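User: Can you write out an input/output pair for a complex, sequences first and structure second?

Assistant: Here is one pair. Inputs:
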Amino acid sequence: MTKFEKTSSFSRRSLLLGGGALVVSVGAAVSLDTVMSIGKAYAQGAMLGAKPPLTPDQLSSYIAVNADGSVAAYFGKMDMGHGLKVAIGQIVADELDVAFKSVKVIMADTAVTVNQGGASGSSGIQEGGKQMRMAAAEARRVLVEMAAGLLSVPADKLGVNDGVVSANDDKSKRISYPQMIGGKYFNVQLDWNKKFGNPLYAPGKAQPKKPSEHKIVGQSIKREDVAPKVFAQENFVTDVKVPGMVHGRMIRPPIAGATPMKVDVSAIKSIPGVQVAWNRAFLGLVADTEWGAIQAAEKLKVEWSPDRPPFPNQATLYDHIRKAPVRKAQVEKQNGNIEEAFKTAAKIVEAEYEWPFQSHASMGPACALIEIKGDQVTCWSGTQKSHYLQQGLAATLNVPLDNVRVIWAMGPGSYGRNDADDCAHDAAVLAHAIGKPVRLQYMRDQGTGWDPKGPASIHKARAALDASGKVVAYEFTSKAFPRVDVNSNGSKPWDTLAGQTIGVELKSGDGFGVPAESYAFDNKKLSWETIAPLLDRASPLRTSHLRDPVGPQIHFASESFMDELAAAVNADPTEFRLRHIKEPRDVAVIKAAAEKAKWDTRPSPRKDQTGSKVSGRGIAYSLRNGTRVAVIAEVDVDRSSGKIWARKFTVAHDCGQIINPDGLVKCIEGNIVQGVSRTLWEEVKFDNKSVTSVDWVSYPILDITETPGEVDVVLINHPEIPSSGAGEPSIRPVAAAIANAIYDATGVRIRRVPFSPDRVKAALS
Amino acid sequence: MVQKFTLNINGETHTVDADPDMPLLYALRNDVGLNNPHFGCGLAQCGACTVHLDGQPTRSCITPLSAVGEAKIVTLAGLGTPEKPHPLQTAYIEEQVPQCGYCINGWLMTAAAFLRDKKKPTEAEIKDALSGLKCRCGTHISILKAVKRAAEMMG
């Protein structure tokens, strides 16, 4: 069974086909005619063919009630494995007063959901959940109002339990949701803010429940998608098949930017079904079988244009960034007068930090399936942004937007704008050229070598301290490749390899970021500068969003630097931070982490250790769109081998209201472990021709033998504060916490990521 | 040069016509129609394609069909079912281990063989047995908890 069939079993079609005539409860004090007249105002039936449009201003675009009482929650985002689906189900169930199990969340299929932005910026609950809560609240309001008419009881004298509305003082006066609207669409207009994507917001007239009224929100309900994964029953995007499908593979140039001059198919002619699609620098092929396509891609003889290798020697990467002309500079935050304050300094501290290109290195290379039937296009993709991919495919294939349907299916990992959107566009070009449905999966070297990369950067920090050890001036500047050479979604051909290889000019975006913290320095300036990409065409070093885009690099620098300042005035690193922070929630996370970790108050480094094996602890803290995180790392350093073991992490996390505590802990654990991996191991390698880190040997990630022994999470719940995100904030301070712990253990400051054994050993010797 | 292969997969016999050099992975996925195991790297570096051949964890992405012979093949789907789960599957659900879950074959199939042969393993022994497998979502801490839990269940 394909994912499509599985999805459609709960699609609108079955929703409508399952709908029956309205039934009134026995004893209800209204006639059928009355029911119909009241119902018509709010509900539209399948029989009439009256389907509200799939637009953000329709309640039916988010919520529907089936004839059997189950509730469909149509969600324009998706769960990449953090348990967002269960959290949305909890929010909807609570607001609607139905059982959690009766809610089915249907995610990110463009045929049944509106563009809520996809998986983006840790906004699943922060923005997506907010909208689903308002929609569910409005659905409840409408249903209670319908019931008021049907039961002849004022709405404020009615209560709802498990989808049944009844009179507070006479429980025999009752009617269920499905009796009122089961199998029919809501016909209710919402007050849409006319925005798409993350900021989409369309409340109704209803007020959502007070946090104190939540019964399901706040519970640690388990994910329903774990068992199917464990029993090999889940269909990933890689598993979708359609009749007549052929298998595709792409061919990438040995020198980035090169174009095929001559393609010789003589060696692959005998492979069943083989066909080559070549258009300028786009070169792909299909075969009847996957193995056939893999062999054909290996055997195809291509003569490439003799391009000059485009990249600098990797050893000169940071010099390149330093010397490159600034393309755009921006001061994002400024208060006081930096230069005047520096003149008063008792002590000035300066430091510079470096972060490499990093890869998404998803567990499997991207896969997509494109089926073109007449003028209708269907795409199955593990994309993070199906509605934007829909736009991109419409543009690439030159068909109207409504003719394209993107069905999201779980991909092999994600972590930002990985190779999924490129793969979908490549598959579309292949399918269009070949005239058959094409399932394309990249090979490992293409997944790790050619995914968009997290940008390499350097960060300069400078601070003035007065005689009391207080920071009186602070300046932080990043100089880097842009945050996005290709946009974080595949909505424009120029943001995809397919578009770029066919000749659409790359439109590299400018932008970076600054530290997110609340240090109350009297004179402060935070800014960034961007430089041009290394290649103005399809490039394996083009940049885009990698989990917590530019957050880990910026906060590695800014929070390492806070430790350097503390050390400069012989202060305890936690106490030094608290000295400069006034924001109560920020103070609370730092104190909570320190208390849980039994923080030993003293300046770094430790002075009581000898021998080759030493240990230390370090703290770092950061903000991200309303979420506060403090992380304490405890590390062991083997001075003789340079090997670091980040043994234990204590994380205090405040994201406002917590929807599902256990799910949140798991999400934080993943952030921490991936953060350790990026800090200790990950660095894209390249020579002057192309990227050379193309598999798990050349692009190593954390091994289970190096995994932290413990991640101790302190959740700070604020039910009264709307939820902010959790998908990324806790990866942000990890690198600095480790760097600070290494300094505590050894007295040596490491300012370049990754902290691989060779680099640590060299730094220590 | 297509040949006929008779494969014993999860207790059932399947016949596959394919190139003897074709890795077992593609026969399982495309010819037999099993959606697990997964293609992760094709280089035996990650484990996402792991199956048991006569009880031994084997990377099906580099195992040519010609090398399978009459070995009994067990995939994750053959390890246990919702009705009769393997202790590791029970423990994985209890600990809510996977995030994306694409890597799951490697960990479960490798750990299943390890726990069959090694009773009451230490944490260091578990880590050593699972070393080299990849999980990009960073669920390693939960993986260790689940394997320890399964080890206890298996006595």
